From TrEMBL:
AAA domain: residues covered: 3-178
CDD domains reported for this sequence: ParAB_family (cd02042)
Pfam families given in the database record: AAA_31 (PF13614)
Stored Gene3D superfamilies: P-loop containing nucleotide triphosphate hydrolases (3.40.50.300)
Protein's recorded name: ParA family protein
SUPFAM superfamilies for this protein: P-loop containing nucleoside triphosphate hydrolases
InterPro entries the UniProt entry points to: AAA_dom, DNA_Partitioning_ATPase, P-loop_NTPase
Amino acid sequence: MTKIYAIANQKGGVGKTTTCVNLAASLVATKKRVLLVDLDPQGNATMGSGVDKSELEETIYDVLTNRADIADCLVVSEEGKYHVLPANGDLTAAEVEMLSMPNKERLLGQVLQQIADSYDYILIDCPPSLNMLTLNALAACDGVIITMQCEYYALEGLSALIGTINQIHDLLNPKLRIEGILRTMYDPRNSLTNDVSAQLHEHFADRVYRTCIPRNVRLAEAPSYGQPVLVYDRQSKGALAYLALAGEIIRRNELGASSTPMNSEVA
Ligand code: ADP
Ligand code: MG
């Protein structure tokens, strides 16, 4: 069964794209078939996968606005060995065009269903806002992976995200759940990190991944080479952490972990 996960948080700079690229490559390393969907007009996941966003003839924009077939737009990340549905700045226009289209929240879900059987995992890299693109990701996926930096304002904004997830669950996508909370850029020497971590465990219990992604300079360097960290420096702490995360996600799936109540309230 294909699992579709949206990597979301309307905050920027919390490790969504880094997680998408490196989790995709790590799942491939365990022999899974993976598609990365770049749903951010910044195209960072596309570039970080070694695909030049300025040279693309067709992107996710053309797919969402019925100008192209999804199968014609997929590209292979030579570096990461996964498939990419790429994005560039054109996607900004799609967000506006989609507003006047019928079934506007279901457009992504409809196109992904056409190719879902070819993959074990589909990871959607969401933009840093709760806009129509993000709503499409939430309507299309089985679960949301929320990336969080354990810092002072980390929990702020989380209730808006969870409110949106609850709404989409009730109105459009009854299978939607919070798949997991991932702590990124983690520094256990910082006492605030431990406080925020404790609060996350209180609210989300076993939905918080045991794997934390440490702050690791190799993770920040790899995108400028268009490589997942597993290719750039496979011994690095960042590479090992994302491999561990892939293992944890696969194990959770195999165990069929219990679902999270959708009404988790957060400060
Ligand atoms: P988002 O997609 O949520 O905006 P990114 O994944 O682009 O966040 O990360 C923001 C910045 O932080 C990028 O420059 C990225 O390279 C860097 N970064 C992300 N995760 C880590 C990490 N674990 N250690 C060090 N740098 C990181
Ligand atoms: Mg991003």
